[in-house]
Amino acid sequence: MSQNTTDQFFKSTVLGHPAGLFVLFFTEMWERFSFYGMRSLLILFLTASFTDGGWEWTRENASALFGSYVGLVYLSTMLGGYFADKVIGFRWAVVVGATLMTLGHASMAVETEFSIYLGLVLLVFGNGFFKPNMTSIVSEMYKDRPEKKDGAYTLFYMGVNAGAFFGILLCGYLGEKVGWTYGFGLAGIFMFFGMLQFWLSQNIFGDIGLKPNKESKAKAEALDTDKRNPFSPIQLAAIAFSSILALLWLVNDPASKISGGKVNIFSFLGPNGNSIAIVSALVVFIILLVYRFTQYSKITKEKLIAVTFFAFLTIFFWAIFEQSPNSLTIFASDYTDRVLTGNWSVVFLVMNSLITILPLVIITWVLILLFKQTFKFYALANIILSVSFIIIWAIAIWMLTKDYYTAGYLSLSDSTLQALKIDKVTTALTEVPATWFSTLNSLFIISLAPLFSKWWESKYNPSANLKYGIGMGLLALGMACVAFGASGIEAGAKTASVSMIWLILVYLFHTMAELCISPVGLSYVSKLVPARMIAFMFGVWYLAVAIGMKGAGMFGENIDKIANEHGLSYFFWMLTIISIVVALFSVAMTPVIKKLMHGVR
Q1: Which of 278, 259, 172 minimizes the C-alpha distance to 550?
Q2: Helices (DSSP H) in 11-147: which residue ranges?
Q3: Are residues 36 and 139 in the same domain?
Q4: 13 - beta bridge partners?
Q5: DSSP type of residue 9
Q6: What PANTHER family does this protein's entry cite (predicted)?
């Protein structure tokens, strides 16, 4: 095999991939722990009664704020990608982002109105600096090994979901069962661990992600022979106009609803001011995008069109998939029978123990493999990583102990209860937390990601369009399950006791859909986009995700209106039909997109 610039990373491997990938794996794992841990609690916290420590908001207002928050999280990646590319480099961007997120979670743990909003703002900017640049480092490590990229991103995505699993499981449990402050606070602690581990291990990435200088810029320009297309003043003005308008809309949409119209930036545009503003921003952006595509060389232009097509499909995927922390969490909380007795209580406790301990064992095993390759050179980073895992193990064992005691299967003395900070109970009860169902997505990812990774690397690897078609079809199947399960709920009902099996099936099918679309989509961005545009185009990709996230919030805002008029099942059938239409569209466009991709698989 001929030598290339990335061979150095493959001299020290873990599971056939560079050890550096697993440094990123664990950094991203703790970041996702914090993000998903907090996210799983946000809707429940906002809609919980005052007596339960919540804000007692309506579902509509909570969904509006949630949609704008997650939308801004992904939109801010444009800013983070630009600063990383032009000013501070990938590494400093990751550290700045992690620091801001640590402060954001700490602020939310205070639980005052000001601190919650401040925390959300810090989390938005922190994610913007962190998220696009982690994937950019992965892309650079594999730039001369394109055949390994799909597998690398799938393993990286496994780390993402390991963090999401433990974040939702533990932060969600503490938030629901102990107190919101504990759930929000725990998220910040592990973001801090992730930042330290990354910073102390950064030399493992060689020259990747360093602050740009004249030499590195000249080298990048020499390698990139593509036609240049600088932004003109008019184009920059158009970007500024559409960006500012979109940002104002994302902030104003929930603010106008929560305040009952007292706060409304676009009131001067009339009763439909919000709609006029966002449509104007989208029209200007689309016109600019189409024009710029005409300015690139033919091959680059066609590859960028292919990326844009997949980004368009991604909007619909996330708008429906992200019902998990929104309408599906509401469904779990208010419409699902979560109290278990007798044998079912034992089954759940044993199953919950297994799904908690086994992933921890697997990830700890990966950690040991990483230690064998890197401890000699990065001892302090590995020690910090070890401490974080010791804490996770302790919290997990405490949670399981509390569950077995509360269910009446474990006897503990008063002194032991006091030492473990567990409240004494007189009536045995097993109640599944509403956030627990969201952990199934991450659990299935951890279980199925290696299988999908092997599939993508085999001769049976489907085309990009077929992967999206399969993914959207599986998404439709999942929504059909919950729609069928909700068919017996009458219109206007605020509570019900539907079997948990429907939510379990939803997360199984949605997980397989996610594996077909999300990591694969990121891989195609890195394959189709020129090196000098990679961080920015990852930002553009996350712009599409941002639109989808806000779309998820807008769907969630209407759940009560639709459920009151047509029944809850009608809401989920609507999402099922949308998924099917997008799946068929993706497959039908296969010949066109295949031509635009110029042989890239």
Answers
A1: 278
A2: 19-47, 59-75, 77-83, 89-110, 113-141
A3: yes
A4: 18
A5: G
A6: PROTON-DEPENDENT OLIGOPEPTIDE FAMILY TRANSPORT PROTEIN, RESISTANCE PROTEIN MDTM, PUTATIVE-RELATED-RELATED
